Every structure is written in structure tokens, then in C-alpha cells.
# Entry
Amino acid sequence: MADTAVQSGSEDPNRRDFIHIAAIAAAAGAGGMLAWPLVTQMNPSGDTLALASIEFDISKVEDGQQVVIKWRGKPVFVRNRTPEQVAAAEKDDHAPDLKEPQTDAERRLPGKANYLVLIGTCTHLGCVPTVGGGDWGGWFCPCHGSHYDTSGRIRKGPAPKNLVVPEIAVLSDTKIKIG
Amino acid sequence: MSGPSTYEPKTGVTRWLDTRLPILRLAHDSFVDYPTPRNLNYWWTFGAILSFCLGMQIVTGIVLAMHYVPHVDHAFNSVERIMRDVNYGWLIRYLHSNGASMFFIAVYIHMLRGLYYGSYKAPREVLWILGCIIYLLMMATGFLGYVLPWGQMSFHGAVVITNLFGALPIVGEPITTWLWGGFAVDNPTLNRFFSLHYLLPFMIAGVVILHIWALHVSGQNNPLGVEPKSKADTVKFTPYATVKDGFAVTLFMLLFAFFVFYMPNALGHADNYIPANPLVTPTHIVPEWYYLPFYAILRAVPDKLTGVILMFSSIGVLFVLPWLDTSKVRSMRFRPTARLFFILFLVNAMILGFCGANLPDEFIFRIGEDGPGLNWLWLSRIATLYYFGYFLLITPVLGLVEKPLPVPDTISSPVLPGPDLHNEQKA
Amino acid sequence: MLRKTLVLAAALGLVIAGPAMASGGALHPKEINWTFNGPLGKFDQAQLQRGFKVYQEVCAACHSMRQLSFRTLGEKSGPFYDEHYKNPNDNPYVKAIAAGWAQQVPDIDSETGDPVLRPATTADRFPAPYPNEAAARAGNGGALPPDLSVIAKARHGGADYIHSLLTGYRATPAGLKAPETLHYNAYFPGDLSGSWSGDKHHVPAGGLIAMPPPLAPGKVTFDDGAPSTVEQQSRDVAAFLAWASEPKQTERKQTGLAVMIYLLLLSVLVYASYRRVWRNESH
# Structure
């Protein structure tokens, strides 16, 4: 560059020049665009998401029985209740001692009152409750003594919430989709 | 070389930190105020490009390791799962596989720059040797990594290279068995290769830190090969070198992106998409392109042990280059004869590469159906001869007999017209 | 000087690399103008559907597709993508294909523990026609039909090669000794000089492949009414296999376009910044 002799370093480039800000901002943008795939690759992948929903044939569950299936790595109870068990659940719909007040109608399968689909994980610390046990004949968690009624609601013991009802769609008279 | 530190912590926090661990001071002195020769050309940006490549490979590699399964029954499938099911897995995988090729393109340019401008000469011998160590570690890492997808080339390439150790007398066979963890390349081999492939890049990073440290002791070389004599010869690293490196890295990313998005398998081999089969050898075992010249040197001699020794010596000769070069002038800008031989060396290295890619017995050209001609084997031999001749014969002799062009006194003198005011003004 | 040499060397490289192309004496594959060629290429969904039908009715009997999941058929740029079913697991075509797939999925009966076969779901990968390699060889005269999941990437020439191979069967040239179980194909890599008793300077190109010609006119009826010629079936199945080898390739190219444009802009900005920084400094 045929300039007159310049003392080097005497004229620092103006840091606040717009072009520098623009270039740095664009570079930061590129960095962000590179970082995003590196972060999102840890999110569930295609094959994991494919098993996010499963279909189940509820006609396989006999009267008064429960079947346990695996969904998203967790146990799911599909219970075909007897009319007495349904009645007992409905009787306590507005019981004053319910920690998490819910009616049986809000929890059972729409259109199929005897079927109950619940995530089989105690809401206390995650053990799998046993069916039919406890003072209400619903479920009993042996770990710390939580009692659930025939609608899966917590009645006694340290668990804070009712057994969770997962997202369910009724596909046909015999088929449901969980998740 | 850099003089006393110019860092002045401005805030309470930075002053507090500075007296306990002067890391900001180190960063400032090394990468902000660090005096850099003002006449560096774009060949000097490859250090930054290489740092970018190393970072890219480590980050994409760690991410791939979250999904890859290092077992012979699952390796190939886990890579396909990454390509199909993992979010952006295809991108991360292609960044890593093409990133390796880009890493080697950059390192070869970086090394050739060193050869041309005499950057290996005193006082930068240790800097050069550290660079050679980094190069060796890169070759090892690349080899280990290529085995992991467990394709046909992965497997048979591993067989060929591990079998090389069998050439050593007496200890050869036990060493090979020890490397394999069995009687052949199999699951134990794959598993340990995965572990070592994860380890080596961090060793590279460590040697890179030593490399940059050694660089900062002597300072950068420059295209004239004349050391900076005054403040007029240098500029502050930030923003001058930083922005130039940034521009070079951006252009490099453009080339990288072109491969990743439009030709992601061009530098690889189709056979590696066939799952490894120990019972079927591919018709044509070829290593990745960056090993081809050394593969040619290996196959140039009929004796297995000599071939192995020659192949390792071809890298070993680089380590002693500072002592082979007798020239008093650093940069080939002022050594026209040396430049000629250097260009021949470059062409020769590419020829060696082609030799490595082809079957030794095939003919390049031939007079008549069965007449005399030149096959790849003989071309490899000629090219290997020139490779070693260049370092062991031409370089030492030329340094003594060549008459170099006149070398300028300082960096700033050839650039600025009129009297050398800076050197006159120097206190 | 250095720059000129590099350009010369690169040009030299391209020249030398040329002749070494045709592998193993086979004919160079025919170059087809696929819709998915080039940086802006896309798959033709109708072609992918026809190609899938060819795979289903002709190839799947012997060739596995182990790395491909049924749900991938419903992914963006796949043969059965439907924008109403962003989640391919909900796509009714894909669900029907999976449930109706001739080969069922091996599983365990949860009550008795016995191994059973059950209909596939969208979450499953394509079940293999043979349970293992030995069975596959036994069913094919000792030859192993390769898995087709990444076949377009595992062969030089990709879709061009596959199409050329499928349409490359010719009558065995007189003078070529070929066993009954092998078939002459001009595009299959091989060295026929050992089985050739004719003129030594004119050994036929190609090799002997264990697969008999798989396609025949009218073998697959296309739902969109396309003529069922061998040429059509071959192109369609080659396109389908190219898609199956890398279902994300369209997304790759589209992302590439955006990235290249952004990087070009970035390089302009950084260059301008660089010139501004250095504007008063001699270089």
C-alpha cells in the first residue's frame, strides 16, 4: 500500500464500526446454527419416538383382571373392573378426604366404564403397586404403604397424587392407543 | 520475544482473578496484544484452520460416541441408526467423516508452508518436531477412527495395518496378537480401537498447546524468513490476525460445507458401506486418501520388513529436517533452485498418492499387448527414491551450493517506500 | 508460482484418475438424469411409490432391508409422505404396509415365552426374508443376496449402476463358459478372461452374477398406470433404493443450500471487516 509512512498501532481500528459488529453477529449466528444440531441430537431419536405410542387390544383383559404392559419404559395397568368395583369407585367420587379430588368418570375409559388404564408407578417414589391390595381393594404400594382405591386414587399413605392416567384414544371397540 | 505483559485488569473481579490465576493475562498476552509479523500471507492462516478442525472433530466425535456401539454385531447398524434416526445424526456423521479429510488437507498445506518458508529452521526446531508428533497422532487417530464403522474397508484395512507389526523379527507376532486381543481382528480389537480413538485427540490437543507455546517463544516465521526487528515489523494479533484468520476459516467452512452437503461420500470408498466380512476380501483394499503416499512407499519394496521401515522412515525423516537443511536463508522466496525442487517434491507426493491408489501390477502404459511399459510399482519406486532423495540429498547439498537472492534487512523495509523511518526512529 | 503448480497438479490429477474408473472390466454404468441428481435434486414421489412396489413384489422375497424402518416410508421426501400425517407413525398407508407385510416379525409370546411371528408395526424395521445367512445361501444356490438398505452407497455408480445392472442382462456370448447358476451381465464387475475361449483381445466386459434377471415386462402392475416395462421397473426400483440408502438426502441438500448462502454472506461481511481493520496498515 503506497501510503506515507505510518506509525503502526497509532490509529486503532474503531471498534464500534458497524461492519465489525455485523461480521461478529453473523459469525455468532453461524456458531448458533452449528450448535443447535449438536444439542438436539440428544433429544429422543426417531426409533424412540416411534414407540412413543402403542396400541393395545383391551378385549384380552378378562373380567376382574389386570394386564400390565410396557409403554415408554414404564408399566401401564389395564384393569377390567367388576361392577362392584366400579360402584365402589363412584361412591367415593366426592369423598372429603381425597388428596387429589377426581371423579371416576374423569379417569376411566370414555364409553367403557369398567376399563381403567393407569401408569403403574406410585406417585410417591416410583415403586410398582400391587393390584387388589390395600384397604380399598384398588392397589397397594408395598414400599411405603400407599393405598389406592378402585379408581386408582390415593386414599391413605405418603403418595401425594392419584395414579396417573396417560393420554388415551379409543380407536375401536377393542383397540386403544396409549400416548 | 513478546516483552513484558501489557495486560491491565480493569474491574475488581478481573484484578482479583489476576492475582490468583492470571489466565486472562495469559490469553491477553498470547492472543490479543501478541506481536505478529505484519507481512503474513494466507498460508499462515492454516494454524487457526487446524484449531477449528480439531475442535470440530472433538465435538462431533463426542456426540457420535453417544450413539455409536463399539461391538462387531452392532457397530455398522449403530452408524446407520445415527444416519436415519438420530436428530441431525446424518449431519454430525458427515461433519466428522469429511472433517477428517479437511483436517488432513489443512495439515498438509500447513506442513508444506513450513517446508517452503523454512519455518522448521532454528530457533523453531522444537516447534517443528512437536508438529511432526501432532501429525503422527493424527495419522493414528484417523486409522483408528476409520475402523469403527466396521465396513469392509474398515475391517480389511485394520487387518493390513495390524499385520505390519508381524514384520518385526521375534517380537512381531506376540505384538500383533497383543494388538488384536485375539487371533485375528475381531471384537476385542474394535472395542480397544474405540477407546484409543476417543483418547488420542485429547493428546493431540495437549501437544497443540505445547506447539503454540513453542511458537510464542520464538514468534511466527514470515514469508521473508527475516525475524521482526522492531515494533514497525509487527501488528497486534487482535484484531489484525484474528480477523484474517476468521476470514480464512470462513472460506474453509465453505469448502467443508460443499463436501458435507453435496459430496459427502466422494472422499470415502463405496466398499465401506458393505458390512465387514472376514471371509471376503475386497478386490482393491485402499486406505483413505491421506495415507495413500505412505501406502505406496510401503508397497514399493518386496520385503515386508523393509517396506515397514521405509514407510515409518518417510515420516521419521521429517523430524530431522532442521538438521538436514544447511541453507543460511530461510524462505524459498529467495532460493529459486530450492523452490524448483520443492515443486517437484509436491508433484512427486501427488504421484505417490496415485501409486497408493492403484494396484502395483497394473500398467500405466504399455507398448503393445505384452511389451515393456511402466507399471505402478516401478513408478512408486522412482517416486519413493525422489521423496527420500529430496530430504537426504537435495536439501543438504542445495543449502551449500545454491546462491540465494538478496534477502531484505527487515520486514517493513521492502513494503514502505522511501527511507526506513521506523528503524531510524527506534529508540 | 506455487499457485500455478497447485492448479496444474490438480488438473493432472483429474486426468490420471479418469482411466482408472471402470472397475473390474465391467462397462461403465449408463448415466441417467435422475430427478434427485445434483445439488437441487428431489425425489419424485410417484417414482418412489412405483419403485417400492417393485421392491415389495420382486426383490423382498430374497433381499433384506434391515436398516430401513416402515415409518421411514412416511417421512418427508419419502414415498408415502403425507403432510396431514407429520408423524409417520400415524400415516395410514404406512401402517397398512407394515401390518400387511408378507414377512412377519419374530417376537416372544408374553404369556408362554414361545417364539412367535407377529405382524409388523410402523416402529419395526423391515423383517428379513431369511432368518440368517446360512438359510439365505441355502435358498439361493449358495449365493447370498446382499441387504439393500445402503446398496446405492455400497456400489460405485449408485443408482446408475443398479439400473444398468438390472437392464444389463444379455445372452451369454458364444465362447463364454458359464455354469447354469450364474448369469452374464455386462455391468457386473468381474474378470471373464478365465472362462473365455475366444479372441484374447476381446474378452467380454462384465462378469457372472448369481442373480437371474429379476425383472420382466408386466411383472409389476403400477397403480398410476405407468407402463410396466423392464426399463421403467428398473429405473423406479433404482430410485427407491437410492432413497432407501439415505432417506435424509433431500433434507441434506436443502440444508446445504441455506448453509452455503449464509456462509457466502458471512464471508463477505468478514472480508469487509478484515479490510476495514487493515485499511491503514501496510501488509
In short: Helices of chain C lie at 2-17, 45-59, 92-100, 133-138, 158-166, 230-245, 249-277. Chain C is about 35% helix and 5% strand. The beta strands of chain C are 105-108, 115-118, 183-185, 207-209. The two ends of chain C are 20 Å apart (CA to CA).
